[in-house]
Amino acid sequence: MRFFAILLFCCALVFAEKPAFEFVAFPKFSAAELFADLDKVGNNGNWMEYDRKSIEDPSVKDVLKKYPDYKAAWGIAEKGSVARLAVLSKKQDKEYLSVFNLKGFDAKPYALVLKDTLYPEVILADYRGIAENLFAHRDDPALKIQLFNKGLKFTYDKPDAMPLRFDESFKNRSSEEKREIVSEYVDFFKYEYSLMVRAFVQSTRGIFNWQAWHWYMPEWYGRYFISSEEIQGMLSSYARPAMFTIFKARTAKDVLVEMRTDGNGHYEMSINNP
């Protein structure tokens, strides 16, 4: 039974010292209650589960050290809103969901790394087997993972109402028009990228060293993202590729991570070991 609600400091933002919101449940939160409370303080935004074994932001560490036995944590950083960390903990016979305002997620950008040991039971916790080495997400069967000897491949199909237009007259455009077209492609690919991060990265756990929110931060993903020069070269070739590779990272151990879209609602992320 849930019996106590919100502690709200509305006069000023208090960063990490005290919870800005706190919910209490006896003896524990149901899943529906937990995520309803997160939605209340996150304006129905994208809460991302914290990975204990991935990079720890100093601002997050400052909060979590208050909760040595916390059960789970989630972060959110919607554009134009304060970053927040929600911590689920237990004290005696009650559960607490404590939500802190943060100055931001402040770890210094770090190269992408595939974790040395991958545990299928962790990665596939939200998936079910539908064929040999093929798994579909329990809530969205259009989201799938296929396992291979040296890697895995995610696929997701969500037909786009406004598919990507390939401008075959690009070479004949003025310089200003070319800049505008390339800028439109960059924006489109950023949207496609964010969709893939939410579908592929956030539906799994324990694969990479980045926290889920790091994938959305340009200072983290920018070095791996398709450049304006690459887009201009592609458009100048007159040849529309079957798939656009918009994210490509090769780790220090030569693991290749790629995200691809066909511009019409088919998405892929592959992880290939050498």
Jot down its keywords.
274 residues; alpha+beta; 23% helix; 26% strand
Care to give the gist of this entry?
The chain is built from six helices and twelve strands.
Report what the structure shows.
The protein has 2 domains: 82 residues, no CATH class; 153 residues, no CATH class. Helices cover 23% and strands 26% of the residues. It contains 6 helices and 12 strands. Strands 6-7-8-9-12-11-10 form a 7-stranded antiparallel β-sheet, with helices on one face. It has a 5-stranded antiparallel β-sheet with strand order 1-5-4-3-2, sandwiched between helices. β3 and β4 form a beta hairpin. The termini are far apart.
Q: Helices, strands, pairings?
A:
Elements (H helix, E strand, L loop, with lengths): L20 E5 L5 H12 L5 E2 L8 H7 L7 E5 L6 E9 L2 E9 L17 H4 L3 E5 L2 E4 L5 E6 L2 E7 L17 H27 L16 H4 L6 H9 L7 E7 L5 E6 L4 E7 L2
Antiparallel strand pairs: 1-5, 2-3, 3-4, 4-5, 6-7, 7-8, 8-9, 9-12, 10-11, 11-12
Distance between the termini: 52 Å
Order of helices and strands: EHEHEEEHEEEEHHHEEE
User: Strand arrangement, largest sheet?
Assistant: 6-7-8-9-12-11-10
The overall pLDDT average reads: 92
Largest sheet: 7 strands, antiparallel
The SS-based structural class is alpha+beta
Helicity level: 10-25%
Total strands: the figure is 12
* CA-based gyration radius: 21 Å
In what range is the share of β-strand residues? 25-35%
Described by the principal axes of the CA atoms, the overall outline is: globular
Query: Tally the helices: what do you get?
Result: 6
Residue stretches low in confidence (pLDDT < 50, at least 5 long) are 3-12
